[in-house]
Amino acid sequence: MSSIVWYLWIGAGIWGIGLYGFMRGPELLRRIISLNLMGAGVFMVMVALAARTEPTDGVLHALVLTGLVVAVSATAFALALLARLLAAKP
Amino acid sequence: MSGDFWFDTILGLVLLTLALATVRAQQLAAAVMIFVVFGLILAVAWARLGAADLALAEAAIGAGLTGALLFSALARQAKAESAPVSKSSSRSSWLVLLLSLMLTGILCFSLWWVPLQPEHHLMPLALEHLANSGTEHPVTAVLLNFRAWDTLLELIVLLLALMGARLVSSPMLQTPQRWPLASQWSKRLAPLLILVAFFVLWRGATAPGGAFQAGALLAAAAVVLRLNHQLPPLHWRYGWVRLIVLSGVLAFVVAGIASALLQYQPALLIHWLEWPLWLAKPLILFIELCATLAIGLTLTLLVVGEPEELSS
Amino acid sequence: MNYALAAVLLPLLAALLALGWRRYAAWVSWGGTILSLLCAIVALQQVLSDGPQQMLLGNWPTGLAIRWQLSELTALLLLLTTVIHSLVASYSLTSLRRLQVAADFWPLSSLLQMSLSALWLSTDLFNWYVTLELLGLVAVAMVTLSGNKSVAAALRYLLLSLAGSLCYLLGVALLYGQFGVLDVAELATRMPASESHMTTFALVLMTAGLMLKGALWPLHLWLPAAHAVAPAPVSALLSALVVKGPLFILWMLWSQLATVELSHAAAGFFLFAGSMALLTGGWSALRTPYAKVMVAYSTVAQLGYALLAIGLALRSADPAFQLALWLFIIAHALAKTSAFLAVGEMQHSLGGKRVQMLKGASQTMPVAMFALAVAGGSLIGLPPSGGFLAKWQLLLPLWPEWQLWLWLLVIFLGTLLSAAYVFRLVVLAFDRADPVKPDFAPQLLPQWLALVPALLVWGLAFGSHSFVHWLGG
Question: Measured between CA atoms, how close is B11 to chain A, in angstroms?
Answer without folding.
Answer: 10
